[in-house]
From TrEMBL, chains A, B, C, D:
Residues passing through the membrane, by range: none
Listed Pfam families: DHDPS
Keyword NADP in annotation: no
Keywords for the protein's UniProt record, in alphabetical order: Lyase, Schiff base
Record-stated family: Belongs to the DapA family.
Record-linked InterPro entries: Aldolase_TIM, DapA-like, Schiff_base-form_aldolases_AS
Keyword flag Lyase: yes
Protein name: Dihydrodipicolinate synthase family protein
Taxon lineage: Bacteria, Bacillati, Actinomycetota, Actinomycetes, Kitasatosporales
Length: 308, 308, 308, 308
């Protein structure tokens, strides 16, 4: 389908349900997609960090895009991550996900290597030149260990290299600089990756949000988005605070036993499993699974948020 | 060929020559391999960081391993990097490089994701269980943003998960802890990834070295290795200092224009080109090429080291 | 004077004007204080990071507090930083600044040492036990290299150790966790240290702001505070955006020649000098002074903001 | 006494024994000094990181220098740390410690502030210009969060600003660059701050070592220094490995309960207490004390090293 310009609203980074032997569980994935569409989301982002893209083999990545596009590709735009270390490898993913039907690609700065802003600019330009679909920059310093400078993003927005920014940096001041600077570029979409300050981001002019927690509670984020657009700041704040309380489920896993990805992604999947949306809460290797007690903790957060 | 146990000596991480349009230049690659073999190196490590593995497409990675194994696989052990973000993706590379003939695989901790020592241990155990060849851990915090703890390495050495360690952490004290702790494990190989303290590493008991600069001057590192093994510490130190002076070529690129990978890998390739070993000094995208002046600077370092 | 509970509104971290030979320029300091009071600010924070507290000798620190308290101590609360590496040294500063008349002290986590949340809690508890005035925690990871965890702040707020938080971490989501968690603690004051998202911080429930830029434009921040409290979100956003544009003056210094403190503090002082408020724009050693061209750049930002 | 030029040998950073109420325990301090002198050390470094300088009040710092200088100032050179955030504050410490009799001062890069190499150079030049005694640079990135670049150190060595370097960076390759570069500067002293690679550092040309563990086992480090100078590399390595095994006592404290400073400094003091040299193992606030079990663990390391 035609990619909206700018893209606005709630764009969940779709979790990738797995079978117990760590293959993509397509029926669960499609049920999750239905759950999101029914919740009113405005687009889908597959193969992002919350999708465990970093853990999926190439054939699994392809299967995810093909399955989701075939299922809802006519209803909703489908963005796909093309997450890899450098330009040539990203280009191979761009080719694969667009062949599979993605309407846009989402690309980070290079990682693993020691990079430089000039190289990051070159990276995005080469990818945009080769991509048949719009390119959205993905600013995620916790993963790639560099921050996209606001002036670089705005330069690449102005010259048409980038169609948008998904900002998972946690730096609202830098995000605001892009939002404000992109006012003269009405087709450029500025999206926050935060779960916790979506109301703030929309209030200062963001186009939308890409919250991982929207997998668990799409209705909540869609409600929040509507309240913000309607200018009902008080009810927006209350809804945001309910979602902030729910988000604490990402800390369910014991940090002495596992890393942050295991805990957060494990909790999202445990919640989807407890809500009956996916068949199995398994996360990809080498992540450590939540224990029964940790899963129970997730359930308590769901209950407190009225989701069980 | 049978993988030596332990692996010792000089094991260059082989640069990957590219054509001007960034395809693997196989004739240049084989000339480089001949240059290294003629220099007396003890094994070859392809698809490491100095090989630009992070920049090579999967089909290019496969071509490198196949070409090198076909050319010298009967003479020398060929180690291959299986560099990717997480266990499932690394396993696909392990399958590919061993199908292409690699004698051992070299694997980092997970990256991009927020990981934990328990997950790193799980990662190496799953890979070792699936790999048909020995697994060598690659400790490179500058790239993966976590450090392999010495006690974890020793635990995985003791239970047979790991056949060796390539330590590019720059932390000689931590390296020593592994060297000392592995004395009771005679088949475990402890290799330094440093160019600059090979003499120190060998003096405290390391089995060998994997210096990127050995692409440029394999004879120097082989000489250094022999002097160390012969106990001729003074001449070893002099040789090491000559190589330290040469190593400054990695700073040839202007840090205002490019990142550290562009400068260092660009300088290695410029040196190989100036020495007439490879046809083209191009590095992979999005790296910034050295300017003529920067290349000239590389030439001066070569001349000063008696290599031009 | 009695310390307000909670403290609300605009609390500028007061710059410390210096003479050309780097002594405290008391007349300029008092003119700056008058400018701030005339601008309508609600309290003053001396000896913070923007005050160059890290650069001031103990006798200079004392002189600053005494001078400001004597000048306006009956009109406005005066908070004073007690910035040092560890508990015993901070306690000496607490004694000095309270003897000089400070109404509250502002204290960071320990730095230089390798610390731990348990030690940070112990630090604040020991200081609160000894301090005759309220203690406000200062969360500034860019300086002290650890982040105050929200749950720790809330624990210390609940048990009465802390009277408030000044958050200069840039992490609005973590800030929100404290704001929300402190709702049941009406005497605890939550202040943002940001210049750029004051409107967002107040909208989610913050009590006030401590923006360094309020030295240059106190009227702007006081206006912003009033618009936010009046619920006039659109005009608040416009005022905030004007201040964001002005804040870019902190980048006036060339990063190839100087560090971020030199540039930002130098620009604040250049602006105060250009506006005729202080006699000399000198910053403390070893900071690099702005060049005439860089100072001219500061002037352009002032002119664009209608402040010249 | 005249400061040796260059300073060579073993220079322990002297622990500061405290009474149970955290005052300097002068009798224990002098017993510790006697123990070090009797062990054969070549100079003493008071008010370093291992001395808990970051935790000592100014009057305590002064008392330490005065007491040690009065006790052994005619026998041995006494170096004193002047550890503080910026130039003006460091200058006050320089004045205090030299008035108290220090023969040299040891100074880090600025910290807390966002600094720059140009500012670091300015910092050392201003301090050297004002100091009546030689200035030694202290490279300790774990505390100050910047690394002294080798070329900057060499520049400041060549122009006479610095009389030496104490390198606690853990980066032996960078250390080597200074050692090699300073060969033409025979009066400049290059000292490693490592406990674990003293043999390596001396082998590549270092002048001496400043190991915290030498508080506990001065005889061991003096023996190691002698073996290295005698060229007896095998016995030097064995002695170094014995000291490496002993050094593991710094991990006695549970990292879930305390930070690295509490554990390491607590273990040094517990060892000195167990050996009967100091009266009380207390560390300064807010450090967490070792538990009886953790202290017992320290005792086992001492016993294994033949020190109990």
């Amino acid at each position: 389908m035609t990619f909206p310009s700018p893209l606005t609203g709630v764009v969940p980074p779709v979790c990738t349900p797995l079978t117990p032997d760590r293959e993509v569980d397509v029926p669960s994935l499609l049920r999750l997609v239905d759950h999101l569409v029914e919740g009113g989301v405005h687009a889908l982002f597959v193969l992002g960090s919350s999708s465990e893209a970093a853990y999926l083999r190439d054939r699994q990545r392809r299967l995810v895009v093909e399955s989701v596009v075939a299922h809802v590709g006519r209803q909703l735009p489908v963005l796909a991550g093309a997450i890899d270390m450098t330009t040539p490898r990203v280009l191979d993913h761009v080719e694969a996900v667009t062949a599979a039907g993605a309407d846009a690609v989402v690309v980070t700065a290079p990682f693993y290597t020691r990079t430089h802003p000039a190289e990051i600019a070159r990276h995005f330009r080469l990818i945009a030149a080769a991509s048949p679909v719009p390119v959205i920059a993905y600013d995620i310093p916790v993963a790639v260990h560099s921050k996209l400078p606001a002036d670089l993003v705005l330069e690449l927005a102005a010259d048409g290299t980038l169609a948008g920014l998904k900002d998972s940096s946690g730096d609202l001041a830098g995000f605001r600089e892009v939002v404000t600077g992109a006012r003269g570029l009405p087709r450029f979409s500025v999206l926050t990756g935060s779960e916790l300050v979506v109301d703030s981001a929309l209030a200062l002019g963001a186009d939308g949000a890409v919250p991982g927690l929207a997998n668990v509670d799409p209705h909540g984020y869609v409600r929040l988005d509507r309240l913000c657009r309607a200018g009902d700041r008080e009810r927006a704040r209350a809804e945001q605070e309910r979602l902030c309380a729910l988000f604490k489920l990402v800390g369910a896993g014991d940090p002495a036993r596992m890393g942050g990805s295991s805990s957060a992604l494990g909790a999202f999947k445990a919640a989807l499993h407890l809500r009956g949306i996916i068949d199995c809460p398994a996360t990809a290797e080498p992540q450590v699974p939540l224990s029964p007690e940790e899963t129970e903790r997730v359930g308590k957060f769901l209950a407190a948020a009225g989701l069980l």
